[in-house]
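Listing S7. Sequence submitted for prediction.
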Amino acid sequence: MLVAAIPMAVTVVKASPNTVILDTTTYYPGLGGGEFTAYTSQDFLGNYAAPAIVAGGFETFCMETGVEFSPGTSYYYTLGTITQPTPGLASQGSGLALTQGAAYLYYQFGKGLLSGFDYTGAGRMADDNLLQAAIWALQGGQSYGGYPTPITSNQFYNDAIAASGGSLTDAEGAYTGSAVKVLQVWTNPDDTGAAQNQLVLVPDGGLTVALLGGALIGLQALRRKLVC
């Protein structure tokens, strides 16, 4: 006997969008950029060293000079490899791939390994400004406000180039690792209304660690060669 199939109702549960709140009250240098403290619905803290964790959030830096956010406001976010495009703002960091140089600097910072960065002393705010300026410069040659110039005198900028084999072209090339992502920040839960993009460390299979670690060893060797 043939029994007719009984239609079954299928309920699709859509995952809630992830959220982030950015705070500027801790090490914020007051010049318009990071470092900022990020509180996210996903737990990324295990990817960071203790010096890059503040008040239960991870420290981050912005990627665009032409897009803003309101501190303390809850936003939505996605993870990606480019800053979400904002029409007319390509020259201010929008719609650009995360670069090798910027990823290198943020990885070293987040792991507590960034050479010359004052993690624990009174010089941290000044180093914040230098690091933010270097990240912007490596993301499309951006500059902003009263940040330190010239960029060619910026230690972190020069270190990123050295870690990329001494080539600015390579330092500005698209990042191909997986440990650093763009935290694409949105005003609306449907991924519209672009707000300021940030940087985040995510779990990695080890390749990025090996690559960036090797770059750091090479950079240290280069420095030893330059010591008289």
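Caption to Listing S7: primary sequence and predicted structure tokens for the chain studied. The first strand starts at residue 18 and ends at 23. Helices lie at 100-110, 124-138, 155-163, 168-171, 207-226.
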